[in-house]
Design a protein that fits this description.
The protein has 440 residues and is an alpha/beta fold. The protein contains 16 helices and 15 strands. A 7-stranded mixed β-sheet has the order 9-15-14-10-13-11-12. A 5-stranded parallel β-sheet has the order 2-6-1-7-8. The termini are far apart.
């Protein structure tokens, strides 16, 4: 069998700048968003905290700018990533937990006000943002560090809300400061950060404001990840394939002439990374509904019988779809899928194996799970509410990705694949509720 020549996809390189005051949850949110977008996260605040810890240990008076500047030459900071997580080392020592104390936090705020310190660390921050997609969080990322960032987010919350979050966080760490003390320190830190003469904390003019006062953590992550995906989608050039152009024209005609199709959170489909799009299967129009809205050419899996028809088969091959033997272990198909994902492609799979009338994901083949587990890519669930109807309003809901880290506990095994599919099915009732809520 002739080995299929895969087309390598070059994904766009982009930067996300996230700023906000102390206690807004930037670092935690940024780490989750970066994981969702499958890019690295650089916690710039941790860099200033590392310097503050270094100075405190050496007994340097942090309020003395000249003394601080004199110590920079001996400050050895190294940043590495382990499983996508930033590891900060000072003099070779991992100081992850040590830099999160209130004393170090106040020290970081003080040293970050010194122009020489900011210039010293700025070079490292900008250098790391070259040649790779990166999310940076801090207090002047969108205004100073990366003024040309593709996406700028300003995350905040009411002082009382931020103080309560920081108080709860301190309690978990065994820090016994009262809520009143935490609020007092937070207000003092806000004043210090916003009024410093060098690179003060402020929202960039083109930044998206996200007030998290009334939002849960998952809601914040979903909100910011979607805004980032919407912006990054514009950076993705449409792939040129005349058969896919025909599909997109057909989808446009159906949407604007024959009926109305609303895809909620469609920006999640234009993945700037290899991914698997999984949808329940109701009609032959389903691939057009999904594929017509994605900027990448999705490589759909199709049952082997379709390729026996000379006209349909030629069209499917032109779309680079992958034939699969239903209800069998098809290793050739699985290798083709994993290979496509390694080359940066996006797969489209209807794992039920046949069409159903119900608007939920029914019992499905575990082959999808095995492909996801082997390739370690996110799986994006899609809910097609009902069978496509002419001259009516039809809805499709794109859910949040199911990440590899969330489903890899049992490894590549039958048990792991079954658990994966169960978690995937569990997402559909929630997606239906969200669809109904957003539609209303």
């Amino acid at each position: 069998m002739k080995k299929e020549k895969q087309k390598q996809v070059i994904h766009p390189i982009y930067t996300v700048a996230m700023d906000g005051p102390v206690g807004a949850g930037k670092s935690t949110v940024a780490e989750a968003v970066a994981k969702r977008l499958n890019i690295l996260h650089l916690d710039t605040g941790a860099m200033y905290r590392c310097l503050a810890l270094y100075l405190i240990r050496k007994g340097v008076e942090i309020s003395d700018e000249k003394a601080v500047m004199a110590e920079l030459s001996g400050f050895e900071l190294s940043i590495s990533y382990v499983n996508g997580r930033q590891i900060n080392r000072v003099g070779g020592e991992d100081v992850g937990a040590l830099i999160r104390t209130p004393e170090v936090g106040m020290g970081a705020s003080r040293v970050s006000a010194y122009a020489g310190v900011r210039e010293y660390l700025l070079k490292t921050q900008r250098e790391m943002a070259k040649g790779q997609s990166l999310l940076l969080d801090g207090r002047d990322i969108g205004t100073v560090v990366l003024p040309d960032a593709n996406v700028k987010i300003y995350i905040t919350a009411k002082p009382e809300v931020r103080a309560k979050r920081r108080y709860d966080e301190n309690r978990q760490k065994g820090i016994d400061d009262s809520y009143e003390k935490v609020l007092e320190d937070l207000i003092k830190r806000d004043k210090q950060d916003t009024e410093r003469p060098v690179a003060p904390l402020k929202q960039a003019e083109d930044a998206i404001l996200v007030d998290t006062s009334e939002m849960s953590f998952n809601e914040v992550v979903d909100c910011i990840a979607d805004k980032c995906a919407l912006a990054v989608e514009k950076l993705i050039p449409r792939e040129r394939n005349w058969k896919y152009v025909v599909m997109r024209i057909g989808a446009f005609f159906v949407d604007h002439i024959c009926a109305k199709v609303t895809i909620l959170h469609g920006e999640r489909l234009s993945s700037a990374q290899p991914a698997i799009i999984v949808a329940n299967h109701l009609s032959m129009a389903d691939p057009f509904l999904i594929g017509g809205r994605c900027r990448y050419n999705i490589r759909f899996l199709g049952k082997e019988e379709l390729y026996k028809n000379p006209i349909i088969g030629a069209f499917l091959r032109g779309l680079e779809s992958i034939p699969v033997k239903r209800h069998k272990t098809d290793m050739a198909s699985m290798r083709a899928c994993v290979g496509a994902l390694k080359d940066g492609r996006v797969l489209g799979i209807f794992p039920e194996g046949t069409r159903h009338s119900k608007g939920m994901l029914q019992e499905a083949e575990t082959g999808t799970a095995m492909i996801a587990l082997r390739s370690k890519v996110p799986v994006i669930p899609v809910l097609i509410e009902r069978k496509y109807r002419w001259f009516t309003h039809n809805y499709v809901y794109v859910g949040t990705p199911l990440e590899y880290a969330d489903i890899c506990e049992k490894g590549i095994s039958t048990e792991g694949a079954e658990e994966f599919m169960e978690r995937l099915r569990e997402k559909y009732p929630d997606m239906k509720k969200r669809l109904d809520k957003e539609r209303a």
